[in-house]
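Intended use. Records like the one below are meant for learning the mapping from a protein sequence to its folded structure. Do not use them to infer anything beyond what is encoded.
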Amino acid sequence: MKVLKKLWSWIEKVFNGLNAKTKELVPVAINVVQAIKDFELSGTADVIEFVVTKAIPGDADDKAIIAGRAIVRKWLPKILLELQLVEVAANTDDLNEKLQLILQRLKLSSDETQNIVYHGIASLIVEKLSDGELSWSDAIAISEYYYKNILKK
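Structure written out for the chain above:
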């Protein structure tokens, strides 16, 4: 247990040491994953627009909104389409329809598979939004720290 406490303490220091811009954008990545989880129940037609709208609050800084939208629009389809889940969507050329089918299939996956996908998406978005401030490893740690210690509380 001491090792885990030391690890969380180190991650907390890394998080607290981030510049203000990156610290502001970490919640966007976590909100993207929360929006992906909520999409199927939303009744919304456009996957990317739903995710972006849920991930970035309307009162956020304009630059944060622009950066967040660009990252989500670029990376969310890329990640979801590259999963083996894409086979379920092979018969349509419409990107939005493909994403909807993939997310429906993902919801039927095991909790472990969902965790892997959601954790990876959050970490990738944190890394890309940090403009080089965070490595992939740091982004994983920050995503996990934020989700467990800030979002869940």
